[in-house]
Structure formats: C-alpha cells, structure tokens
User: Fold this.
Amino acid sequence: MNDFDRRLRDALGGQPAMGDKAEALKKEAMRMFENKLLVAKILTWVSIGLSTVGFVVAMVGFMSATLAREYVIYGIIFFAAMELQVLMKLWFWIVHSRITIQKDLKEIQLQLAEHMAAEKKAEG
Amino acid sequence: MAKTPQQIADELLVLECQEGSRAAFERLVSRWQERLWRHAYRMTGNDAAAWDAVQETWMAVVRGLRGLQDAAAFPGWAYRICTNRCVDWVRREQRRRSAAEHLGQEARPEAPPAGDSDDHDAVRQAVARLPADHRAVVSLHYGEGLGLAEIAEVLAIPEGTVKSRLFHAREQLRERLEGGGHE
Assistant:
C-alpha cells in the first residue's frame, strides 16, 4: 500500500457515524422483521387449519358417501390434506435440521477461532 | 483465509435469525447497520439517500434471509443489496442533474460528505465525482477494507474487472487530487 492508498483509506474509513439515526433505523428494521414473522406464523396456522378442515370434511363425507364418485372425491380431499400436512412437517424438519447442524458447526468453529486467537495473543 | 471470531459470530446470528429469533436479528442490525450506512453515505454523499438505501437493504434482508443457504454469504449479500440501491440512486441523480443542465437550469451540486479535515473533504469530493460503478469499488476497498475477491463477490463481477475499475478510479482520483502527478 502506497501513500496515496493510505490517504484514501484514512479519508474514506473515517466517515461520520450515524448518530441518533441509528436507533430509529434499528426500530424500523425490527418492525419489518416482526411483521415478516407474523405473516409466516399466520400462513403456517392457515395451512394447518386448512388441512385439518380438509381432513374433517373428507372423513365425514367419506363416511356418509353413497355413490362411488363421492367416495373418490372425498378420498382425494383426504389424501391432499394428508399430503399437505406431511409435506409441511417434512419441510419444517429439513429446515430446522439444516439450521441446527450449521449452528453446531459454527459454534465449534467459533470456539476454535477464539482458541487460536488466544494462543496467538499468548505467543505474541 | 481463516475466519475471525466476529465473522463466525455474525454467521451464527444469521442462522438464529433464520430460526426466527428477534434478539439475534436485533444484534445483527446493531452490528451491521453502521457499516451499511457508512458505505451508503460514501456512495451517495447524501444523508437521506443513505438512510433510504439502508432501510431498503434491511427490507430486502428481512424478505430474503430465510432463503439464504449459506450464512457466510450474508456480508457480501447485504453489501450487494446496499450497493445496488446506492448505484440506482446515483444514476437517477446523475440523470436528473443532466436533465436540469439540459434545460438550462442550475444543477444542484451533489453535497459532499461532511468531513473532519480539508484533505479528507477533498478526497470525498473527488470520490463523489466518480461514476457509480467506480465509486462502489472505491468505497468497498478503501472504506470497508474488502479485498479484490470479496468485492468481486459483492458486485457479482470478475476479479479482473474489479482490478481495472479500481485502477481507473485511483487514476481519476490521483488526477483530481494531485493534478495528474504520479508518485
């Protein structure tokens, strides 16, 4: 790095801080995150509700059906509702497992990095 | 290159956010918004535009965080979103100014970032006159301390292009600051 590079780095690295704007922007970001969580929660409960209603309707309809066509229709609704629940649970399980494994790995990495940093400090 | 504990801690926070932890997101915002804001401010030289860029960045982060497969990609991803928002703003502003000049109106000069010394002000004013693409490279390299490979990842361009943009930006800055004299 030459003097000119150092001059640029000094000038651009020392930009003014956000100051009092930081808190307002943080609040805004938190509000967006909470809204997103709320939407995800609503969607989850709507899906669970729909599949449960589908189950009940299909069961009742299947039991009271008299024609072959009705048996087929209620059977399809039953399987669709079941598939929806199974796929949802599978998806949640996959995502949760991925994140848990990655978190465990990151925690090990963090411990190693901290250990290495402490060792380097002790050596230096 | 080995990751620093801070980088790994950021990755952990991203993973916790993906699980829906409010506390983790709050910490992630605290750790990142200053960096993003400084970058946006360097790019735009405008307080309100930097604010909008960072706000839009967080909006995009919230929308896409769950879909982020690799937590280590978060810094590059966040810088990319912020840079793209700023580049859009700079180009809009340049179009607006050239239209104003074309119509014979007096174009409002881009406000240079407030500085702490004359030399720093001069550098920032010279950077503010660079084209948006070059400004992004200069801001990420000199302001954020990113390497060529990291900038290439952020801007989704080849490393050679980063090198050439940095070279041309440096030459333009040198010309403006030192009157074309080379060391």
